Amino acid sequence: MHVSLATSAGRAERPNEDFVGAVPGSVVLLDGAGIPGAESLCFHGVAWYTHRLGGVLLGHLSRGDGRDLTAILATAITEVAAEHGHTCAIADPSSPQATVAMVRAHRDRLEWLLLADSFLVLDRADGGPLVVTDERETTARRECSAPLTGVVRGTPEYDRVRASCVSALRALRNQPGGYWIAKDDPRAAREAVTGSRPLAGLNGVALLSNGASRIVSPYGRTDWPGVLALLRASGPDGVIARVRQVEAQTTTGMDAQIPDDATVAHCTHVPRVDPAREVSTIR
Hints:
The protein is of the alpha+beta class. It is built from 6 helices and 11 strands. It starts with a strand and ends with a strand. Helix 1 crosses helix 2.
């Protein structure tokens, strides 16, 4: 299959904490997260974590042995944790972590795995797009942020309530009833959203980080069919350019948001045979 990739840092003064890469038949997209100023916990940083975990995942997927995606993710989390667990406080809730999105064309099916709030968009030939995401982090964030409703920004009361909301959200991370993300515990892989469908009937598939999906929500400048149309016309770079355009137009006021790293992968010419016998084109 043909894979087009694009990624863009949200701010020039900070490293891009997203990762995207592909091997024949498989694509991996990660969206890194961590707490600014937490260098004392892990001197490697979030960008290192996402790039290292992404590289390990691609290494396992390149073997083409058909191992379960959940098992591959659990192994990769364990391997990366072992690399810096002796120097960094990787169990601390503020240490580097990442969302994970993976797709693999295996035999006659497309398999996927999603952990936290990245997006998978299946371009179906016989209908509209099928959008898959892991909504648990968004749900937890919305519930934990409820006490901020009506509190005036910029006031001491707002700062106090916000700090309490952040602590409540962290307490739900990688916990039953909360949400799950790749970090130090391989058991999180078992909680991922997984699925598959026949390759027949698929025109393609797209993966978007949270920063790229903003074009749909909260910006509301297009819908998911519009995203697919934009990908066909302008590729992943076109989607990211549209996100940056909206951000530039809303730099002040209540609608303003801090630009986020944005990453998109678009797969077309989806194989109808075992991907081990195909060669992917990555551009």
